[in-house]
Design a protein that fits this description.
This protein is mostly helical. 71% of the residues lie in helices and 3% in strands.
Length: 515
């Protein structure tokens, strides 16, 4: 059967097995993302929506057969465990298809901000994962299981960190209020179709704005107005709760309405004539802005500091994603002439460092330390410059000091571990990595991969495979995690404590692996 040519047939396939559903979803998504930019066919789009719908129908059928008809309406349509399973599946596809920011400092920043807001929401029991998509389009989205994506374009569009926090808090509210599950509860037929096409639009829009808009419009064609009204109600609720989250996290609650105003202004200035991606799945009108302003007016307005973390990460993203280093250098120098800010000096230091122009990098590093000497990101780029200049001993010594001061920042430890590995100080590197993993509630998954490399070089084969298993499990790649645990078992003694531990881990991984 050709799923792209017969989207209705794709839905029929989902009545067989979950494995078939996964295959249909995966193949159809590849059809869409392999198409040229702005040239995705309507049949492929329809198939993508059908495949996602297929996955939801399959999960919903299990839910209706296994749950009693009592409790919250959302639970009768989609349980939290099923939401988490859907989220893991979608996240696997996103990691495979979208240009996610892989830089440790960027990942660390968005997760630190996100987890701070989660703590303020009082919903710490939900495991949230935050990620940045290297896409200049203005967009942010949430999907079941606590996965929240933010496009680079949205980060760049925000003037203050509070405004970015407002958008992230809004997306957290979509998850904590279980809007995806509640959509199913409203109408078993219409809402399943609506939810599938909305998720499809989010994913497809990353490849083509026109295609994302077309997918959403096509999916909402049936009973369109009632579906849109329902999503507007979700938006209002997410605004209200998001503002409360901002206030609890001690951000300025007025920033929510400010972020809306920025989005409206960007939308009006959009020369393509198309609506911003974010506004296609998050309906925005003047009433929402007014309501957000009125609610924030009853809360404490907070003074905003220089927000170096936010401004430096914006500068870092600009440098890491630029396609024209010379043009970016010219732009950053112009920024510096207008306003001698730490972010411009940081960008100029990083641009020259990455281009191996070390004398120029040193010049801008001096400017940077004059105005932001003690910030950890500034100190970290200073150690990177020292290493590039051949002063590796000084760099390693400074990294050890920074790691002592900021033990929770894996971005610092990662650079230190790389230097220790290069110097063949493997035992010390293993100890530092092990201490970090044991001490952290949610260690950066890259720590497991680095630990595996260190253990392999030390001849600790079983331990290396076990660390890789944890790394793949953090990526929701449970089959690959299981394979690593099986390899580890081949290198431990039968009946040993190591074997018992590995088999217990293998049982857990197999229980999470899709069938």
């Amino acid at each position: 059967m050709n799923a792209a040519a017969n989207p209705q047939g794709a839905v029929t396939l989902c009545r067989t097995t979950q494995k078939t559903t996964t295959i249909v979803f995966s193949r159809t998504l590849k059809i869409v993302h392999s198409a040229p930019q702005r040239r995705i066919g309507s049949k492929a789009l329809a198939a993508l929506g059908a495949a996602i719908l297929c996955m939801f129908v399959s999960v919903s059928a299990v839910s209706q057969s296994s749950l009693p008809s009592m409790g919250e309406p959302a639970d009768s349509a989609l349980s939290p465990l099923e939401e988490a399973a859907i989220g893991r599946q979608l996240m696997r596809q996103i990691r495979a298809q979208l240009p996610l920011a892989l830089d440790t400092q960027v990942d660390e920043y968005i997760n630190t901000l996100g987890q701070l807001l989660v703590q303020a929401s009082g919903r710490q029991k939900t495991n949230f994962t935050f990620f940045v998509v290297e896409d200049p389009n203005i967009n942010a989205f949430a999907f079941p299981g606590g996965y929240i994506g933010v496009n680079q374009g949205l980060i760049e569009a925000m003037v203050f960190e509070d405004q970015l926090a407002g958008v992230v808090a809004h997306e957290i509210a979509h998850v904590t209020q279980r809007h995806h599950a509640r959509m199913f509860a409203v109408s078993k037929t219409r809402t399943l179709r609506t939810a599938a096409t909305i998720v499809a639009a989010i994913l497809v829009a990353a490849a083509s704005p026109e295609a994302g808009q077309a997918a959403l419009a096509a999916g909402l064609a049936v009973n369109q107005q009632s579906a849109i009204n329902f999503t507007r109600l979700n938006e209002i609720e997410a605004d209200r709760i998001g503002i409360d989250i901002l206030d609890s996290a001690e951000f300025d609650p007025t920033a929510m309405a400010e972020s809306f105003a920025i989005l409206q202004r960007k939308n009006r200035l959009n020369t393509s004539g198309l609506q911003l991606e974010y506004l296609r799945t998050h309906p925005l009108d003047n009433n929402r802005i007014a309501e957000a302003s009125n609610r924030a007016a009853n809360l404490i307005t907070r003074k905003r500091d220089e927000q170096l973390d936010f401004n430096l990460i914006k500068a870092r993203l600009r440098v890491l994603t630029t396609q024209d280093v010379a043009q970016q250098l010219s732009q950053e120098k112009a920024n510096w002439r207008r306003h001698a800010s730490p972010s411009s000096a940081y960008a100029l230091t990083l641009l020259n460092l990455r281009s191996k122009r070390l004398n120029e990098a040193q010049r801008w590093m001096r400017e940077l330390t004059k105005i932001a000497a003690d910030h950890p990101a500034v100190l970290l780029i200073g150690t990177e410059l020292k290493a590039a200049q051949g002063r590796k001993g000084e760099s390693t010594k400074q990294l050890k000091t920074l790691h002592t001061l900021y033990p929770e920042r894996y971005s610092i430890l990662e650079m230190l571990l790389d230097q220790l590995i290069d110097a063949r100080q493997l035992t010390e590197a293993r100890q530092l990595a092990n201490n970090y993993i044991r001490r952290s509630d949610r260690p950066n998954r890259r720590a497991y991969r680095t630990m595996a490399s260190i253990q392999q070089q030390l001849g600790e084969t079983a331990a290396s495979h076990e660390s890789l298993a944890y790394y793949f499990a953090e990526l929701d790649e449970y089959q690959r995690a299981a394979s690593q645990l099986e390899l580890a078992l081949a290198h431990v003694a039968t009946g040993s404590q190591d074997e018992l531990r590995l088999r217990a881990s293998l049982d857990v991984v197999r229980g999470n692996s899709p069938r």
